[in-house]
Amino acid sequence: MSISTEAALDDQKVHKKGHTPDLSLFKRWLRLLWQSKTGTFGFVIVMAVTLMAIFAPWIAPHDPSYQYYTDVLAPPFWLEGGSFTYILGTDNLGRDILSRIIYGTQVSLLVGIFSVVVAGAIGLTVGLVSGYYGGWIDNVFMRIVDSFLAVPTILLSLVILKIAGPGLMTLIIVLGVTNWITYARVIRSEVLSLKEREFVKAARSIGVRDWKIMFAHLLPNVYSTFIVISTLSVATTILAEASLSFLGLGIQPPTVSWGGMLSGGRDYLADAWWLATFPGLAITIATLGVILLGDWLQDVLDPRSQID
Question: Residue 9 and residue 2: Cα distance in Å, rounded?
Fold first, then answer.
């Protein structure tokens, strides 16, 4: 059954049973999420990462920056010489790996979410304006987009960070201003089609201002696409942050980041593989969860898709 058909049936049930539309919509989303095994799995991962970031001070067994000099390079508890004191072992400075991974979720979520907010705001505005007005305005914006596409994002980020200097806020802004291209291109293509619809022509005919048409009439019709792109962009941004931190131009010590942990553990892969393996697994699991959740959102929000 298609999403649009299910929605119509749900609306009928609302009127019959007297339930509020908001409650019915919430139940429908829960049902669709439960029906999708991948969506449920992704949602569980995202919620687990979010809760770890929020409650890190209470969940982490140790201070992530405290150095236990007598327990340097302690192995995980299941290996010889390991103990439950340091479940995933310690690094070359005696810091608890598990605690650092838990605190690392805070940086990953902060960078992932706020960078997407910056990129989404820029890309959405450019896409709406470019698609709605067309002409020379569209040509200027699209040539700017082409210029950004001509340069690898990671290379552009490295250059900007090298000039501006590393740091959390700098990293968020850099990843935001280098990742708005996808939003702009996709939103523009939808607006080009939508602006020829009757409801837009009717709004123009009664003298509705352009900005109100864009943000009150066109924006609600592209929000589903925007949400899907934003969700999937969080995953790519987490990977980008880890890559830049690994190269030494992202999050700087003593702030904990998964990319920084990977960088610190690369020289110990032969003797202390856990230093890099567990942060790498954390990055993989977090990005996988966001991607699975994004795929589910794409199925739910696209009326042309079908849910089994």
Answer: 11
Place of tokens 């790498």: 280
| Tokens encoding 286 | 């977090």
DSSP state of 133: H
- Say how far apart CA 157 and CA 6 lie, in whole Å: 44
How far apart are the C-alpha atoms of 192 and 133, rounded to whole Å? 9
Question: Residue 20: what pLDDT?
Answer: 44
Token pair in block for residue 247: 């190269």
Q: How far is CA 258 from CA 170, 196, 281, 297, in A?
A: 18, 47, 10, 27
- pLDDT-derived band of residue 302, with 50, 70 and 90 as boundaries? low
Closest by alpha carbon to 7, among 22, 23, 34, 25?
25
CB atoms near residue 286 (< 10 Å): 26
How far is Cα 104 from Cα 95, in angstroms, rounded to an integer?
13
Whether the full predicted model's pTM is greater than 0.70, yes or no, is yes
Query: From residue 8, how far is each of 13, 17, 24, 160, 279 by CA, in Å?
Result: 9, 14, 12, 50, 45
